[in-house]
Amino acid sequence: MSPLRMGLALAAVLAVAPALAGCSDAQVQDAVNGAVQGATDGDVSLGGALPDGWPAEIPVIDGEIKFGAGNTTNGDQGWVVTVASGAADPLADAEQKLVDAGFVPDTSASANVGDVGVVALKNATHIVTIAGTPDGVLYTVAPA
């Protein structure tokens, strides 16, 4: 999956998240499912587990996995996972776990807007973009 396509999926989910705050869990799941499937043409697994094929070298923060999706496009595998967390700073925790696992931050691909921060990290095989709020982290993974 191209980093651009994964970035668009990330942007779509981040854009609709505030609008979904007052919705029921079923409405949120349907909206997220549709947004991710539309952006990635992949299958979505809501709740509890990392998607099939999630690379073992990519750690995730402690918390509840809200949804995960994986897709193969032109032979390249990519994933999107959301983890709800009660940590004081879920984004910082996620970034530190990735750095500890050997990923290198890409400072040119980092941003903060209000309570939302975005950080990209990479190793020899994957690019991981993490977007965090005080409530959790959204991971997007693409081949390097």
UniProtKB/TrEMBL annotation:
Residues 1-21 form the signal peptide. Keywords: Signal. It comes from the Bacteria. This is Secreted protein. It comes from Cryobacterium zongtaii.
